[in-house]
Amino acid sequence: MTTLHPAASRATDAVAGSPRRAGTGTTATRILGIATIVSMCWLVAFGLGFSPADRDQEEAVRLLYVHVPTIWLAYLAFVVTAVSSAMYLWRRSLGWDRLAGASAELGVVFMAVTLVVGALWGRLTWGVFWQWDARLTTTALLFVTYIGYLAVRNLGGSHAQRATRSAVLGLLAVLEIPLVHFSVQLWRSLHQGRTFEPNDTNMDGLMLFSLFVGVIAFTLLYTWLIIHRTRAMAMEDMIDDRGLDDALAARRAEAAAVPGADEEAH
Amino acid sequence: MGVTRIAWLVARKDLRVEWASKVFTNQVLPFAAVTMVIFAFALDADVVLERVAPGLVWLATLFSLLVLVQRSFAIENEDGALDATRVAGVDPRAIFAGKALALAVELVILEAMLLLAAVVLYGQDVPIEGVPLLAVTSITATCGLAAVGTLYGGLAAGFTGRETLLPLLTLPAVAPVLIGATRAVEAALGTAGAVVSDGWPWVGLLTVFAVAFGVGGALAFGPLIDE
Fold this sequence. Notes:
B: mainly alpha
């Protein structure tokens, strides 16, 4: 039996056929969802409307109100994956494995958004889509590492096998990333070229506030997404578990429907 | 039997299989040589080739590593040998160490050949004061590559539908080795005005990497092959 988080049990009631609506939504996620939408509206209002254009970057600075929150969320997501992987290896509860997997998926998505928005910002301000500086290079490698992690999650096998494999890989990623970061930094410090800082130290107060709204909005989005994704994964695991039982039941139903069928088959 | 003894036996077994099958000498070394040749087709100019020769040597090493790891675990999975070894109660750390050692021996031979190819094909000179740096770089980088290769090989190689995972997992993980080893060899060969003393900090990085993945790999290998 898969152990489910108590809040997900209402969702599983839906799967089992109780009168509740089918889906992974609960009161808590509805409130969270509304808060996310409201804060996103604030972000649009402040990011696109109220905050001023930058002196040097002009309107391109508005991209940072998305870029900075998404990279923050990507890092947060990967930290959650690492911690959940360790917790799984300690506690052996599949809920931790699902949290690790869901968080890695979200981390990859947010990282992809970061890289695309960052490339657009770079094109507008630096004139190039990409720069081989330490931070960008490490980010790109981190992105690819977690794509590998997601690929390993889909290798198949039992839930426990998937969980152990992914947890070990998640912790290996924690080992890899500092090594990669340090070596890339050492490498790029040889090329003492122009250093670009997307975060101005003297940001207008309103711009800082817009950034703050962005961080809050995206954090709420991440929380909402992770709750739904973990619940959906729990239900996928349940369907997997019931798969054999359902197949046997279907076989029996077939045999019962056509009484002479099994004799003919021999 | 101690872990060291078992590791030694596993390494010897792997090397004996390689010696008997001649896959390393007849397929992998020629593959590496071909890679060095086609780099010249892609890069077109002698000046460019001379400047990037150290990097090309290590790129060819990495590509050959993928092939070697696939081979190393293909022989294990043919008759379920790895599973049988585990079921017999052999310590997975010993298996890891043994396979990594065999892989390292093959890699060192490969790297020596690639350096020779660089001298011949890319017009590289090996100054005598660069030789110690070259040797130490080769050893430390090889230890790191062998550890990572064996670890992810255990996870990915040898199973149908999984072999394609090996490059995706391994290449980001060995990026520090590529960076460090290339810079160290550039220093040893005096490429682009580098001096030998520039290379030793990179050897430090390679050593840290080798130790980190040697230890981490030994610990992680067991859970990853226990299927």
